[in-house]
Amino acid sequence: MHLARIEASGTTRPRAYRHMIQSAGRFALAAAALVSVVGCGNNYRPVVTAINPVGPALQPTKYAVAISSSPNAGTPGLMTLVNFSGDTIVVTPQVGVAPYYLAVDPTGTNGYTLNGDGTVTSFDISTTLQTKDVLQTTLLTGAKPVSILNQGGNTYIAEPGLNAVAQLTGLPLALKQSFTVAPNVVYVVGATNAPRAYSISQGANPGVANGEVSGIETTTNTLSSVLAVGRGPVYGVMTADGKRAFVLNKTDGTLSVINAQTNQLDAPNTTIPVGVNPIWADLAPTRTEVVVANAGDGTNPGTLSIVNIPLCNAAAQVSNPLCDVNNPIDATGFGQVLANVPVGHSPVMVTVLQDVTNPRAYVANFADSTVSVVNLTTNTVTATIPVTGHPIYIASSSGTPTGKVYVVTADTVANTGNSVMTIINTDTDTVRTTINLQGIGVSVRVTAP
User: What is the rounded distance in angstroms from the CA atom of residue 57 to the CA atom of residue 439?
Assistant: First the structure.
């Protein structure tokens, strides 16, 4: 009867096989004298109790990539790879001499550093990475590179020493060509699969005359439009769909908006006023917002400007018949500054936690040695988190049951000569742990948001 019930439940093993296993089990139990079989005749009815695993859900496989520079001149820096789930150091290979800039490609599989000896290093972000696997490319003499953008098959490096943007490809990186751009180029902004990127230059008279951006067609790798932006541009972000780019003009306290579809300044929202000395920005795509960290005047606290940036879409056509879903124009409310939220003194960076249910921005305040947590639903500061040392770089990654925020500080720990990276749990917005970086902290990136 018992076997009949098993077959009725859909078990596919043959009856003879099940009888053999059942008999062996009875023999073992009898020999060990561990169980008394009680039943009618030869009927054996074992009781099976399922044991279900208990514990938190597994965290995704992703990493924080931190770079530190040696305090000893002329010696290589270190890449510290930290596991997201366990906050453990996985590998610490050497990179270039005196690294000062870190970039990670959109897939999170390759990392790049700019180094003080005029080289750029490239490496796989891997748990088996060794120093011998780190690749090095020597840049042109006098390049003085300041930033890297990897956009698919192309890597663009801003080189103010040559008034150029270098295009490199492959691994190790190989120079393909250089684009001549306006003087004092500081950054190249783009997005994955976007048809074009933009170099950002401060011009011959930084902070006095307007800056300039040059369009780089990523399919043909040729220069296109040249557009005037505000004074003292320092940074830029592009929406993931590649339709809008925002350039931070530090001197003017504004954002210049580029319509990357038309390859022109946006209209009518060409310029958006934000706070004093905007220095960094990040996107909150689930809320169609861009958040801007304003450094302030050095006396008063800085601010976080939260700017609405919706575009027309199919749903918007109902209320706005001018909307064209094939060439989205700015929707009603685009460019509106929703709030200027006071944060700490001298903020240097902001990162947005990409959490749909509870989106937050984390602002690194250099002078205060704190991180301000800004709720993007209420546009208020909900926590101020002290960290060790003065933060210079911050990154975040979402997760369940908790995301993580990584904060690198410039200061060295007493008696060790090393900086630390502070890790914050986003479910409680409290410090989880700190990690020794074995050198002077430079930067941190995450392999997935």
Answer: 34
Q: Buried b vs exposed e over 164-189: b needs ≥16 C-beta within 10 Å?
A: bbbbbeeeebebeebbebbebbbbbb
Distance set, CA 219 to CA 22, 192, 223, 234, 308 (Å) = 67, 12, 11, 26, 30
Taking the mean position of all CA atoms in its chain, how far away is CA 172? 23
Q: How is residue 425 annotated by DSSP?
A: E
Contact 194, 218 (CB under 8 A): yes
Lowest mean pLDDT among 311-320, 326-335, 415-424: 311-320
Show the CA angle centred on residue 111, arms to residues 110 and 116, nearest 5°. Answer: 150
Q: How far is CA 328 from the centre of its chain?
A: 26
Note the pLDDT tens digit of each residue in 11-60.
333 434 334 434 444 434 334 444 343 444 444 344 444 444 444 444 55
* Residues 3 and 46: beta-carbon distance below 8 Å: no
Q: 14: cis peptide before it, omega within 30°?
A: no
**Alpha-carbon distance values, 83 to 60, 107, 133, 278, 427 (Å):** 10, 17, 20, 32, 18
Which token pair is 237? Answer: 């972000």
Report residue 315: phi and psi, to 5°: -65, -35
DSSP 330: B
CB contact at 8 A, 87 and 433: yes
Closest-CA residue to 442 (of 414, 421, 413): 421
Alpha-carbon span 222 to 337, nearest angstrom: 35
- Collapsing DSSP to helix, strand or coil, 317 comes out as helix
DSSP H or E segment with residue 422: strand 420-425
Q: Residue 90: name the closest of 124, 138, 114, 51 by CA.
A: 124
Rounded to 5 degrees, what are φ and ψ at 174? -125, 135
CA 335 to chain centre: 24
- Token pair of 434 as six digits: 């700190």
Rounded CA gap, 62 and 196, in Å? 29
Checking if the pLDDT of 174 tops 60, the result is: yes
Q: The pTM is what?
A: 0.85
The pair phi, psi for residue 19, each rounded to 5°, is -65, -40
Neighbours of 202 (CB within 10 A): 27
Query: How far apart, in Å, do the first and last CA atoms of the chain sit?
Result: 56
